[in-house]
Amino acid sequence: MTEFKLTAENYYTQEANRHYLSKSVFTDFEKCEAAALAKMNGEWNPKTDETPLLVGNFVHSYFESEEAHQKFLNQTTSDGKTIRQKMISQSGKTKGQTKAAFKIAEQMIDRLTGDEAFNQLYVPGEKEVIVTGDIHGIQWMGKIDSLDLENEFFYDIKTSKDLHSGAWIKTEDGRNQKVPFVQGFGYDIQMAIYRELIRQTFGVICQPLIFAVSKQTPSELMGITFDGDDEQAMLSAALDYVEEKQPHIKAVIDGIEKPVGCGMCEYCRSKSTISTNLIGATQIKLS
Ligand SMILES: [Zn+2]
Q1: Is the pLDDT of residue 281 over 80?
Q2: Which of 34, 121, 192, 195 is spaced 20 to 30 Å from 26 by Cα?
């Protein structure tokens, strides 16, 4: 390992990603290795709508501290506008008003602020704690939303469109399968990794608790614990899954193995050519 020192300032940089695996990088590589590698090497920037990410960060920074929230609002985005400016509608009938997605974000904050369990558990914990560790020979990093070492819990806020609709994943044999919210977004992997990184960083085994809040009006609130036998088994299965998948991901990041493209995502679409995608038996010779 080189001299790189992980800090709050460089946590979200590609340099950090080259030294430590994280849940988001692991998930990116699982979706499409070619796209994930191009993103990591700065060769490609996805054009996806950033609103869901901004709404999530809006809620997280609010509960981190007043200072963190103001810093988030004053941050400039790729188009030169601050988040505060981007939250306001610029045209049409709603001009000058807060955009719908951020009205819902404010409402999500109100719902959480009024919740007894959330106030007693999440609010007092230490926020945005960086943890690192060795998972089966590979360095990982994580950022804990709220950590309570004394009571041996860590908390994570998850914002989602709807807490009941689940998510589609691709199975090993290529089928699409609908699974509950927690597995669908890889939160089982994240919670298993975070528990292990907290253990290695602080020597305390903490249990995860997800505070899920839906992007609906009114928002639904749900507390998801992992202390049952089934959930504990789910967390160990998630770590086994990481152990199986990560050697190839790390080898692709290090340039030892070649990335495999999914052939369907935004990145793969941009790289598609007629000559490599000819369907049927006709062979065409290009000069
Ligand atoms: Zn792809």
Answers
A1: no
A2: 121
- DSSP secondary structure, 64-122, as one string: H-HHHHHHHHH-B-TTS-BHHHHTB--SSTTTTSBPHHHHHHHHHHHHHHT-HHHHHHT
The Å distance, Cα 189 to ligand 1 centre, comes to: 22
Closest CA to 245 of 174, 172, 180: 172
pLDDT at 284 over 80: no
Q: How far is the CA of 36 from the centre of ligand 1 (A)?
A: 8
What is the distance between the alpha carbons of residues 32 and 28, in angstroms, rounded to a whole number?
A: 6
**Cα 167 to Cα 5: distance, rounded to the nearest angstrom:** 36
Ion ligand 1 neighbours, Cβ < 5 Å = 32, 35, 261-262, 265, 268
Q: What is the pLDDT of residues 81-138, one digit of tens each?
A: 999 999 998 888 888 899 999 999 999 999 999 999 999 999 999 999 999 999 999 9
Choices 3.90.320.10, 2.60.15.10, 3.40.1110.10, 2.40.50.150: CATH for 14-270: 3.90.320.10
What percent of the chain clears pLDDT 90, i.e. is strictly above it? 75
223 C-alpha to ligand 1 centroid (Å)? 34
Domain ranges of the chain: 14-270
Ligand 1 midpoint to CA 249 (Å)? 15
